[in-house]
Design brief:
The chain is α+β, with helices and mostly antiparallel strands and 379 residues long. 55% of the residues lie in helices and 18% in strands.
Length: 379
């Protein structure tokens, strides 16, 4: 153990011997880790933004078209399914939800931008968002809407609270916090009657049925009964099941998620190359010192501990600034785009493990030069 401590102290002194090189080395490791952190942050933004609407609906069970994959995909079902679900014992309320992608006209720049319009019955508890619950009664008047306060500024200012959707004027009477996603820059909440006015959609078709259960009712038997009585064109899920299903879809079933994972792998590969070059150069520049250690009787194991200790120290010294820079850059991205980009503690732990693995692997590769070292060749 004392030999390991000596090796760690010696490796630290080797790194500090040339401060400018140490700074450059830390910068290289930080760059590689920053690449990985940003890819992970982008992927988190994809997953969280895709699920933020689903997480905010007030429902124990959701009935959707069986072809609806993921939740934000637009696949209607007949409204009769809502009443069939309501007839099941244990279901207290069933409320419909409509979703459409319409065109918002920026009245300042005379440009069109897609916006997600969500229709619901204002008299039904549909969302968990406090602002929506408070302002829902205002939507009973046809032609009114609530605008997502986290929408991007591409929609422009709203003079007198008047907006234009699909060439129809609509009054903005409040706002609610939700956020953008990779499909649209914002959302609009309207009543069912206003939704039909904007879309010309038939009221007999709905997007989702939101079921609230009688307090104390277990969802398992209700799901079994729904599966028995509902036709094969729809499926029922608990909210947690649907979130898990959508997470699996966005993690593995979309090209962008796979691309971001490949980006993490590439960042790791780049980091190994950078660390290898740093450590290999470090070994070459200190061959005389390592040869002296061998001549003094220190074995290969001690020298291996020196190089591995350098690797670990580099990973730690590069990890700290990468976390700070990555968090700051993702916060800036979230502020400018409205996407929920950020890092979790688990992300930090995973990248820390990757940093340690990356630098250790590079150190093992650089050790090949030391293993073949003969003191007689240098003295």
């Amino acid at each position: 153990m004392s030999g390991i401590r000596r090796a760690v102290r010696f490796s630290f002194r080797l790194l500090l011997h040339e401060r400018s090189r140490l700074v450059a080395s830390i910068g290289g490791v930080t760059f590689a880790l920053l690449l990985m952190l940003l890819q992970i942050g982008f992927r988190n933004a994809l997953l969280d933004s895709a699920l933020q609407l689903l997480r905010q609906v007030d429902a124990d069970i959701l009935v959707i078209n069986k072809e609806k994959d993921p939740f934000l995909a637009r696949n209607n079902m007949h409204k009769e399914r809502l009443y069939q679900a309501l007839s099941v014992q244990g279901v207290e309320t069933a409320s419909p939800l409509w979703i459409a992608l319409l065109q918002w006209k920026n009245l300042d720049k005379e440009t069109l931008h897609p916006i997600r319009v969500i229709g619901f019955r204002p008299d039904m508890p549909t969302f968990l968002i406090d602002a929506v619950r408070e302002d829902a009664p205002k939507l009973k008047r046809i032609g009114t809407a609530l605008l997502d306060a986290r929408s991007r500024d591409s929609y422009g200012d709203l003079p007198d609270g008047i907006a234009q959707i699909n060439r129809r004027e609509i009054e903005i009477v409040g706002s609610f916090p939700l956020g953008t996603d990779f499909e649209v820059d914002g959302s609009l909440l309207v009543s069912d009657e206003t939704f039909f006015e904007l879309t010309r959609q038939s009221p007999k078709w709905i997007e989702i049925a939101l079921l609230k259960l009688v307090p104390g009712t277990e969802p398992g038997p209700v799901l079994e009964e729904l599966a028995r009585i509902l036709p094969g064109d729809v499926r029922a899920f608990t909210k947690a099941q649907l979130i898990d299903r959508d997470l699996a879809y966005w993690r593995t079933g979309t090209p962008i998620s796979v691309i971001l994972l490949v980006g993490v792998a590439l960042g790791f590969a780049v980091g190994v190359v950078i660390c290898y070059q740093i450590l290999y150069t470090e070994v070459l520049d200190h061959l005389a010192e390592f040869a002296t250690l061998k001549a003094m009787g220190y074995g290969d194991r001690y020298i291996q501990w020196v190089v591995i200790s350098e690797s670990v120290l580099l990973s730690v010294l590069g990890f700290v600034p990468s976390i700070v820079l990555g968090s700051a850059m993702l916060s800036l991205l979230g502020w400018s785009s409205g996407l929920p980009a950020g890092l979790t503690l688990a992300d930090g732990a995973n990248v820390g493990a990757l940093a340690l693995s990356m630098c250790t692997l590079a150190g093992l590769l650089a050790l090949r030069k030391v293993r073949s070292l003969e003191p007689a060749e240098l003295f």
